[in-house]
Amino acid sequence: MAEETSWTEERLEKLQKLWDSGLSISQIGEQLGVTRNAVAGKAHRLKLPKRQSPISKTERQKNKEVKQRDLPLRLVLRDIKWSRSKCVWPSGDPKTVEFNFCGAPIVPGKPYCSKHCALAYTTSRDGS
Fold first, then answer.
1. pLDDT-based confidence at residue 118 (cuts at 50, 70, 90)
2. HSE toward the beta carbon, residue 55, CA cutoff 13 A
3. How far is residue 106's CA from residue 66's CA, in Å, rounded to a whole number?
4. Angle (CA) 88 91 92, round 5°
5. Residue 32, Cβ neighbours under 10 Å: how many?
6. I want to staple 112 with a disulfide (CB 3.0 to 4.6 A). Which of 64, 70, 95, 116 is the partner?
7. How far, in Å, CA of 13 to CA of 2, rounded?
8. Region of 85 on the Ramachandran plot (φ > 0 left; ψ -120 to 50 alpha; else beta)
9. Residue 8's beta-bridge partner residues?
10. What are the boundaries of each domain within the chain?
């Protein structure tokens, strides 16, 4: 038995009612027997009101952090923010996703802040 996939007036009315009821696009597709993309496309062409994402901003941030912890370290390190005007003294274990850089303002001409310059540069060489 073939499914009916044309947008009849009856199906358009049902789409509108389901849309207004707040069902997800996937749920509407299931109810109408079409793909979520078909629903999204038709809703766009009908200029149905846009919806808020079902995932809140804080949930997206939590998901990003969780996903980031699951990524291989080499991919996590790509997202480390650094700047030539910020201290690049390493902080944390570089084998973990918590690894980062200090980030304090640098001493002009040096890659570190004053605190880390004091640790990195010595004024005399000790022979021992």
1. very high
2. 7
3. 32
4. 150
5. 20
6. 116
7. 21
8. alpha
9. none
10. 9-45, 73-120
Hunting for tokens 């540069």 — which residue is that? 121
| Residue where the block lists tokens 């997206």 | 60
- Residue 128 is predicted with a pLDDT of 53
Alpha-carbon distances, residue 33 vs 11, 12, 14, 22 (angstroms) = 10, 13, 12, 18
Query: Mind listing the pLDDT tens digit for each residue in 70-107?
Result: 666 666 666 677 778 899 898 888 777 777 888 899 99
What is the distance between the alpha carbons of residues 66 and 80, in angstroms, rounded to a whole number? Answer: 16
> For residue 28, what are the CA distances in angstroms to 15, 60, 61, 71, 127?
7, 23, 27, 33, 77
Q: Give the Cα separation of 25 and 37 in Å (integer).
A: 8
